[in-house]
Amino acid sequence: MGKHSRAAGLRARSLVAVAALVVLGGAGLAGTAQADDALVEGTPCTEDVRACVDLAGKRAWLVEDGTVVRGPLPVGIGGQGHETPKGDFVVEWKDTNHRSVEYDGAPMPFAVFFAEGGIAFHEGEVGRPSKGCVRLGHEDAIEFYDFLDVGDAVEVR
Q1: Which pLDDT value is given to residue 70?
Q2: Among residues of the chain, what percentage have pLDDT more than 90?
Q3: Fold annotation for 3-156
Q4: Would residue 36 be called left, alpha or beta, if left means φ above 0 and alpha means ψ between -120 and 50 degrees?
Q5: Residues 144, 51: contact at Cβ < 8 Å?
Q6: Is the Cβ–Cβ distance between 18 and 25 less than 8 Å?
Q7: Which of 42, 62, 64, 38 is nearest to 52 (CA)?
Q8: pLDDT at residue 102 in the model
Q9: 36 close to 28: Cβ distance less than 8 angstroms
Q10: DSSP states of 17-44 as a string?
Q11: What's the rounded Cα separation, in Å, for the pair 86 and 155?
Q12: What is the rounded distance in angstroms from the CA atom of residue 65 to the CA atom of residue 9?
């Protein structure tokens, strides 16, 4: 299955889960859908993912067809009051030389945007809290930028 059809499948399953919650009026099914999906070995994410982030462990992976192709690698995450959001996302857009509008033009090289509010993977200092983004070392940021395409599935746990 191609990477874009996997992302479409993830979106379709999400819509089915939401519809089931509305019809049945409960939240129990959402947990069941996640529990039934096979996890990528060594990660907290499902096999449909292309990028996986473990916030508690401050690490990330790139995944191809359910197999880790890069990682685990260290990441910087959002600090107190600017936590990196958890959930299932898709890559929305990319910018090689992005500068933050919200934070006085702060550089965000190799930015891969995946969540509302300008949350992205990008090159930055891994040992320092971000404003919600997932910071990567230089080589890792380039690899994430080159590997991920618009529409690819991202899971943050």
Answers
A1: 98
A2: 71
A3: L,D-transpeptidase catalytic domain-like (2.40.440)
A4: alpha
A5: yes
A6: no
A7: 62
A8: 83
A9: no
A10: HHHHHHHHT-SHHHHHHHHHSPBPTTSS
A11: 8
A12: 13
Other CB atoms within 10 Å distance of the CB of residue 19: 11
Could you give the CA distance from residue 69 to residue 58 in angstroms, rounded to a whole number? 18
**Residue given tokens 């910071």 in the structure block:** 135
Between these two residues, 38 and 87, which has the higher pLDDT value? 87
- HSE (side-chain half, CA atoms, 13 Å) at 55: 16
The model carries a pTM of: 0.77
Contact 105, 90 (CB under 8 A): no
Least confident of 12-26, 46-60, 101-115: 12-26
Cα–chain-centroid distance for residue 91? 8
Q: What is the pLDDT of residues 55-114, one digit of tens each?
A: 999 999 999 999 999 999 999 999 999 999 999 999 999 999 999 888 888 899 999 999
Sequence letter at residue 78: G
List the helix and strand counts (H, then E) for the chain: 3, 9
Q: Answer whether the bond into residue 109 is a cis peptide, omega within 30°.
A: no
Alpha carbon separation from 100 to 59, 97, 131 (Å, rounded): 23, 10, 11
| Residue carrying structure tokens 């990660």 | 43
C-alpha 132/C-alpha 108 separation (Å) is 12
